[in-house]
Amino acid sequence: MPSELTWRKAIEKVLSASATPLHYNEITEQIIAEGLRHSLGATPAATISAQISSSIKKDGAASPYTRVGRGIYSMSKGHGQAAPKQKLTPDVSESDETEAQYEIVSSFGMFWRREAVEWIATPRLLGMQQIGATPVDFNKQLGIYLLYDGREVIYVGRTTDRPLGKRLFEHTSDRMSSRWDRFSWFGLLPVSEQGNLGALPATFDAAKLIPALEAILIEALEPRQNRKRGDDLAAVEYIQRVDPEIEKKRVKATLDAALNKL
């Protein structure tokens, strides 16, 4: 079995084969789809963003990558892809901070299913950034959450003194217990490549707080007149993974039912 490509080789292979610039999320999805990397870690999209940003910052004009827009890249001229046409108006220079989409909200999950969680005092809230990535347990995440009855928001809560898993567990036995079947959450604790949650930042930049709040509202409420998703949440969504304990119980129940018929 051939060894997997390095992150840089995999990125260059995908960008060189693309006729158009790609967002680093798209690069990540293509790398996974083509099987160029098997060791993905918990935050493959963040790893790819960091690889490209680091090259551009460190290597300058010698970098094989060109930033076309926020989080969007192509291969530089002479590195497998033609440079984009010259614009009539100059671009506004972007700081390195534009690539860091984890300034306020580090991660979020949308419309996770209540039935996919084993509800104990410390439930496992498992999510993956992409299929094949290392699952992350968001049980101890801090931030904001919403409870849904179908698609209707029926409750908004915060996790400060008690983490996300604990707060949601409480809602399985309080006055809300029979009223919700899905939940969304927006977390502030950063996620490492190994899938561990870090510490809460001591302060937040006010200039970054406003767009983060706007992005949360757009994602959570999905207003019809907003044509795009919240910019600061574009790269940090985690898809839910069913708790393996639930799968084990389903298998056991199936076996028990089959044995009872004998």
Give structural notes.
With 262 residues, this protein is an alpha+beta fold. 29% of the residues lie in helices and 18% in strands. It has two domains: 7-87; 107-247, no CATH class. It has helices at 7-17, 24-33, 44-59, 164-170, 206-221, 244-260; strands at 22-23, 65-69, 72-75, 107-113, 126-128, 136-137, 143-149, 152-159, 182-187, 239-240. Strand 7 and strand 8 form a beta hairpin. The longest helix is centred in the C-terminal third of the chain and has 17 residues, at 244-260. Mean pLDDT is 83; it is low at 87-101.
Entry keywords:
alpha+beta; 6 helices; four-stranded antiparallel beta sheet; 262 residues; three-stranded antiparallel beta sheet; 2 domains
List the helices and strands and how they pair.
Elements: H1 7-17, E1 22-23, H2 24-33, H3 44-59, E2 65-69, E3 72-75, E4 107-113, E5 126-128, E6 136-137, E7 143-149, E8 152-159, H4 164-170, E9 182-187, H5 206-221, E10 239-240, H6 244-260
Antiparallel strand pairs: 1-3, 2-3, 4-9, 5-6, 5-10, 7-8, 7-9
Shape: globular
Give the class from helix and strand content and strand pairing: alpha+beta
Low-confidence stretches: 87-101
Oligomer: single chain
**Tally of extended strands?**
10
Largest sheet: 4 strands, antiparallel
What is the ordering of alpha helices and beta strands? HEHHEEEEEEEHEHEH
* Rg over CA atoms: 21 Å
State the strand order across the main sheet. Answer: 4-9-7-8
Contiguous helical run count: 6
Distance between the termini: 45 Å
Mean pLDDT: 83
Give the total of domains: 2
Beta-strand residue fraction: 15-25%
Helix fraction by DSSP (H/I, runs of at least 4): 25-40%
